[in-house]
C-alpha cells in the first residue's frame, strides 16, 4: 500500500491534481538525459524546468528563423573587419578594462598598430578560421514585437538543454497526456522542432573535417573544448561531446591553465596538443571574464598575461575557432548599440542587401550611448521603467532597472560612460495560464511566467554549416515576470520549450 507521504499532490487552478510521482519521474528523466547541474560535492541535481511549454505565434517564430541567420551573417563579416572593430570600439575599450585587454590582444593577433581615428592592418598573422557559434536572445515584447536582448558569441551554451527541454515536454505529453493538457497554454498548439544539440554538433563537425582535410590527415578529427575550473554546467557540455563522438569526432577538455603548457606548433602551422596530437576545432566555453585567465601561481607583473597569450597562440594556428577575439568584440553590447543606431544602407559594407538590413533592423531595440546629455535626458524626461542600463558583462547580474538606473549613472565617472548603454526595456507577453515550475524536485505554481528565446546559428568562414541554412535550434528560459534575473544557474529561470499557434 502507498503511504500518505508518497502521495503528496498539488492542486492546479483548474481543480486537477498533480501526483508527485509525475514530477518525480520527470526529474528522474531529466537527470537520466543529462539535463543537470553539478553540485560542489560531485553529485548532480536536475535543471529547473516547466511542466508544459510556452506558446508563440507561428508568424513571429518564422520571422525569427528568417532574421537570425542574417544577423549571424552580419556579425560574421563585422568580426573580420578588424580596422572597424578597433576604430569603433576604442572608447569602450578604454572604459572597460577587460575589453581593453581584448582589444590589445586583437591588435597583437592581427598586426594592427595603436589606433587614433583610423586603423590599418599591417599584416594578418592570424591563421585561425572563424567558426561563429552564436546564440541571439530575444524577448517578444507586448507592443514592439520580438526584439534582440543581446548577441552571445562566446560560451554561447545550453543548446543541448534546449533540445532536451523539448524532448522532456514530449515525454510529459506521451506519459501523462491529461496532466500535460491541464498545464499547456494552448491545447491546439503544435511543438516547434528543436534539433539544437544535433545541429550544433553537425556544424562543428563540418568545420572539423574541413580543417582536417586541408592537412590530409586520417583518423578522427579532434575537438578541443576550453572550459572553466570547477564549473557546474558540465552536463550540457558533455551532451555536446557525446553527440560529437557519435559523429566520429574525438573530444578533449582543457582549461586555459592546462593549455598554457600543453599546446605547441606542428608542421604547416598545425595546432598540436601534448598527448593528443593535432587539433581541428577549438571551442571556448571560457574566456569572457578575467577570472578565466587568472593564474596566481605565476605571480605575473601583468595580471592574466600568460593565459591570455595562450588564446593568442591558438589564433596564430590553422584551426577552426569559436570564439575568435574579434567575434567576442563584434558581439559586445557596444557593437549591438552601434549597429542599432547605424543607417540601413551602411550594412552594405558587410555584404547585406537593403532587404536584409531592414530585416535585421526589425528586431533591434532602441539603444542609447551614455554621456552627459543622455544622463540629463534620462533624469528629467525619460520613463525610467522603459529602460535598462547594461554594461559589457556576460551572463546575469550586469543590468540595472527602473529607479535604480539614476543612482548607478550618478556613481559613474565620465571615463566609465562608454562601458555602459541604455536599452529599451522589453516587456514580453506573460503566459495566459499559470504553469508549474519544478526546481530541486519541488513544484511551484507560477502565474506570470515570461520567456526569453535564444536561437542558435553556426557559420564557418562566413558560410552556414548546418542542415537548416545556418539555424541550429533554440533555447527557452522562462521566469516570473517580477524577477529580473532569468538565468538557469544563477537566477530564477527554468528550462522551457515552444509550441506554435496560428
UniProtKB/TrEMBL annotation:
<keyword id="KW-0067">ATP-binding</keyword>
<dbReference type="InterPro" id="IPR037013">
    <property type="entry name" value="GSH-S_sub-bd_sf"/>
</dbReference>
<comment type="pathway">
    <text>Sulfur metabolism; glutathione biosynthesis; glutathione from L-cysteine and L-glutamate: step 2/2.</text>
</comment>
<keyword id="KW-0317">Glutathione biosynthesis</keyword>
<dbReference type="GO" id="GO:0005524">
    <property type="term" value="F:ATP binding"/>
</dbReference>
<keyword id="KW-0479">Metal-binding</keyword>
<keyword id="KW-0547">Nucleotide-binding</keyword>
<dbReference type="InterPro" id="IPR014049">
    <property type="entry name" value="Glutathione_synthase_N_euk"/>
</dbReference>
<dbReference type="GO" id="GO:0043295">
    <property type="term" value="F:glutathione binding"/>
</dbReference>
<dbReference type="InterPro" id="IPR014709">
    <property type="entry name" value="Glutathione_synthase_C_euk"/>
</dbReference>
<dbReference type="GO" id="GO:0046872">
    <property type="term" value="F:metal ion binding"/>
</dbReference>
<dbReference type="InterPro" id="IPR016185">
    <property type="entry name" value="PreATP-grasp_dom_sf"/>
</dbReference>
<dbReference type="InterPro" id="IPR004887">
    <property type="entry name" value="GSH_synth_subst-bd"/>
</dbReference>
<keyword id="KW-0460">Magnesium</keyword>
<protein>
    <recommendedName>
        <fullName>glutathione synthase</fullName>
        <ecNumber>6.3.2.3</ecNumber>
    </recommendedName>
</protein>
<dbReference type="Pfam" id="PF03917">
    <property type="entry name" value="GSH_synth_ATP"/>
</dbReference>
<keyword id="KW-0436">Ligase</keyword>
<comment type="similarity">
    <text>Belongs to the eukaryotic GSH synthase family.</text>
</comment>
<dbReference type="InterPro" id="IPR005615">
    <property type="entry name" value="Glutathione_synthase"/>
</dbReference>
<dbReference type="InterPro" id="IPR014042">
    <property type="entry name" value="Glutathione_synthase_a-hlx"/>
</dbReference>
<dbReference type="GO" id="GO:0005829">
    <property type="term" value="C:cytosol"/>
</dbReference>
<feature type="domain" description="Glutathione synthase substrate-binding">
    <location>
        <begin position="222"/>
        <end position="330"/>
    </location>
</feature>
<dbReference type="GO" id="GO:0004363">
    <property type="term" value="F:glutathione synthase activity"/>
</dbReference>
<dbReference type="Pfam" id="PF03199">
    <property type="entry name" value="GSH_synthase"/>
</dbReference>
